[in-house]
Write a structure and sequence with these properties.
The chain is of the alpha/beta class and about 725 residues long. The chain contains 28 helices and 20 strands. The longest helix is centred in the middle third of the chain and has 21 residues. The N terminus is likely disordered.
Length: about 725
């Protein structure tokens, strides 16, 4: 094959322009295009090492630049593949020096890679020359502070070559360069503006803040480090606050007290506009429930000093980010943006690790300048499947603290807490500005047992210790909190899902509840509602989590296997795509139906005999239902990917590792799977060594965000 197909060319016209951003029109490729390189890239796509889209993008660039050198076309294809793996840019120095480590292709593909690499430069300078020579590349001489990225002429080039500090040039698709630069500029504006404490200026505001902090954290001791209290104090003086921590460290507990603090110190508390949001419907519902519960419990201890009930009622429901920003179907445009900002004063966003670069750009763009943004999330969880790992970048210094002396002085005055020397910035270097607005919560009140120990071992890269903890669980028997099995038949996974182990939760309770449907008829609506809630709650106690979607040990294979056994047992009766008891996950936002990507529901009969199947969703204590005929974008959800499980928790979680997962297996994937479990965790691997391989493979996403913020790396 000397050229990619016409279909690939048409795909390049449609998809490449969308990825690049605003570019010029397509042009026919002259005969001088290096067809051999394109054919080699196509062969790599045939082997599954590149996507068809990656090759189509390289073909598009060849059509724009008739003198494109092989290095340019290969760099474009690899850049597109990197974007598909979640990277926002391509580090060219690594591509030139260590392509095997960057590409992470299997050993059997090295021969094909070496053949291609024979036509490519041996040194970084050769790659840079090939890029600089092309009219499709915009070279930016320096990557300084946000919004000050040099004066290279912008002619709508689809690629951007950025020279960062030192020998670390980065290649971007134009769209992601614009997103990253925009996010950096807006964050810098927020962290460089310190808000005065009300009422008035200086000491008066700080005195009032300290009085309320003492009330809100009455059990806190000045001699003990209270990071929750410190987080509230720091958030009070900034327009951006980042609060990170693992499960059980009290992120939403802290956010609730911050809201109470803002409510108590605002000059006109009755007009304070607060919104809650999260990337998924499930995470949004959990955030609202947690915040409301914490505020109402706090109300009891305030002895009438604050009307937090009124604050709870005024906040309204938490929303998905798509809903908050006014997502428009089939477009990248939003209802709210810089020209039409959100009408709010405080926005708290949970599960921020799931927010990808494009979404963060849209969120920051839509926030009014005066509003406070509080991001909550676990920096060690999986990042979004989309490009960017924004929370991970923002929390780069969270573990070390890196606080300036003026920050320490402020925390002492307002929170009565003395920051420990180990969390202060090195005197030889300036304290990062972003670090002064970031707090890591360090004490977990939930994960002190085997599940917490396993999560800590995995998160710190201790594969041997993780194996020992799992083996200890096996020795204790099926009742153990953590338990693991390597190898064996897939049927063992299905048996665990349907029968559980040692009394821990499984789908057995869901199957039992499903079979207890009340009789239909008039006057039975309340009874039917109680039954629906029981089925939904029983299903949410357990979940199968998979590393991959496809294959026998992936989401598709395990969903079908569970369905077949349930059908054999008479629990469900399949008569097509829809059947009573089918659990589904929504895969696309639908504002008109009030369902959003990630929502989990179950198809059940209506309360009267005349009603057809409806999918019921439980949001806190409220039920929402949609007719099955109106839900086209759903998939069966007995098993789901670890990515899709973020923002959810289950009594018992079973993590399934497939031998076909490849580079998808990572430390963050296993850690995220473990931390979805509240009471019990099971690990089932298709073969030996998969856990050790995953723990030894931390995710590192290429990004230039911290460099744009002047924070370095």
């Amino acid at each position: 094959m000397s050229r990619t197909t016409g279909r690939a060319r048409r795909r390049a016209d449609n998809d490449t322009l969308d990825l690049f951003g605003e570019t010029g029109g397509d042009a026919p490729a002259p005969a001088s295009v290096p067809d051999g390189v394109l054919a080699q890239l196509q062969a790599l796509a045939d082997l599954g090492l590149l996507r068809r889209l990656d090759v189509a993008l390289a073909d598009f660039v060849a059509g724009q630049d008739g003198h494109a050198e092989p290095a340019l076309l290969v760099a474009v294809a690899v850049l597109a593949q990197m974007e598909g793996r979640g990277h926002s840019c391509l580090p060219l120095a690594e591509l030139a020096a260590k392509p095997n480590a960057l590409l992470a292709w299997p050993a059997e593909a090295l021969g094909a890679q070496q053949v291609l690499w024979q036509a490519l430069p041996a040194r970084l300078e050769g790659w840079l020359q090939a890029l600089r020579a092309s009219p499709v590349v915009r070279e930016i001489a320096q990557a300084g502070q946000a919004g000050q990225a040099g004066q290279a002429e912008d002619r709508g080039q689809p690629l951007v070559l950025v020279h960062a500090h030192g020998p670390a040039p980065l290649l971007y698709l134009r769209r992601y360069w614009d997103y990253e630069r925009g996010v950096a500029a807006r964050i810098e504006q927020r962290i460089c503006t310190q808000m005065e404490l009300e009422p008035g200026l200086g000491a008066a505001g700080e005195t009032q803040a300290r009085r309320w902090l003492e009330r809100l954290f009455s059990s806190s001791s000045p001699e003990q480090a209270d990071w929750q209290k410190r987080a509230c104090a720091l958030a009070l003086r900034g327009r951006l606050s980042v609060i990170t921590g693992g499960p059980g460290t009290g992120k939403t507990y802290t956010a609730a007290r911050l809201l109470a603090l803002l409510f108590a110190t605002a000059p006109d508390a009755g007009q304070l506009r607060v919104a809650l949001a999260a990337p998924t419907g499930k995470a949004a519902a959990r955030l609202k429930q947690s915040i409301d519960t914490a505020l109402l419990e706090l109300q009891e201890s305030m002895e009438g000093e604050l009307d937090l009930v009124e604050l709870v009622q005024r906040m309204g429901a938490a929303r998905t980010l798509h809903s908050l920003l006014g997502a428009r179907p089939d477009t990248r445009h939003w209802g709210f943006h810089a020209g039409r900002p959100l009408d709010l004063d405080v926005l708290i966003v949970d599960e921020a690790s799931m927010i990808h670069l494009e979404m963060m750009h849209a969120l920051l763009d839509a926030l009014p300048a005066h509003a406070r943004l509080v991001l909550l999330g676990d920096k060690d969880q999986l990042a979004s499947v989309e490009a960017g790992a924004v929370l991970g970048d923002l929390c780069a210094n969270a573990q070390a603290g890196c606080y300036a002396q003026d920050t320490a002085d402020y925390v002492l005055r307002v929170a009565g807490q003395r920051l420990e020397p180990g969390f202060m910035a090195d005197e030889a270097h300036a304290a990062p500005a972003l670090a002064q607005h970031t707090v890591m919560l360090r004490t977990s009140r939930r994960f002190g047992g085997p599940i917490g120990q396993l999560a800590l071992a995995v998160n710190s890269g201790q594969a041997a210790q993780a194996q020992e903890l799992l083996q200890a669980g096996v020795s204790q028997g099926l009742q153990a909190q953590v338990w693991g099995r390597e190898g064996g038949a897939r049927q063992a996974v299905v048996d665990l899902a349907l029968s559980g182990r040692g009394g821990h939760a499984s789908y057995a309770a869901y199957a039992q509840a499903l079979g207890q449907r009340p009789s239909a008829g008039e006057g039975q609506e309340a009874v039917h509602r109680a039954w629906v809630v029981e089925v939904l709650q029983a299903f949410e106690r357990f979940r199968l989590l998979c590393a991959v979607r496809e294959g026998d040990w992936g989401v598709a294979g395990l969903n079908r296997a569970v369905e077949l056994v349930l059908q054999q047992r008479g629990v469900i009766r399949e008569s097509g795509e829809w059947y009573a008891g089918r659990p589904v996950m929504v895969t696309r936002n639908s504002a008109e139906l009030d369902v959003f990507n990630g929502d989990i529901g179950i198809a059940l009969p209506g309360w009267s005999t005349a009603q057809a199947l409806r999918v019921y969703f439980l949001r806190g204590e409220e039920l929402h239902s949609v007719g099955v005929g109106r839900l086209a974008q759903v998939e069966t959800a007995f098993a789901m990917t670890v990515h899709k499980s973020q923002g959810s928790e289950f009594e018992h979680t079973a993590l399934v590792l497939s031998s076909q997962a490849g580079h998808v297996l990572s430390r963050e994937l296993v850690y995220t799977g473990i931390t979805r479990a509240r009471q019990a965790f099971s690990l089932l691997s298709q073969g030996p060594g998969l856990l050790a391989s995953a723990v030894g493979s931390p995710t590192q996403r290429a990004s230039g965000l911290l460099r744009l913020l002047g924070e370095g790396r």
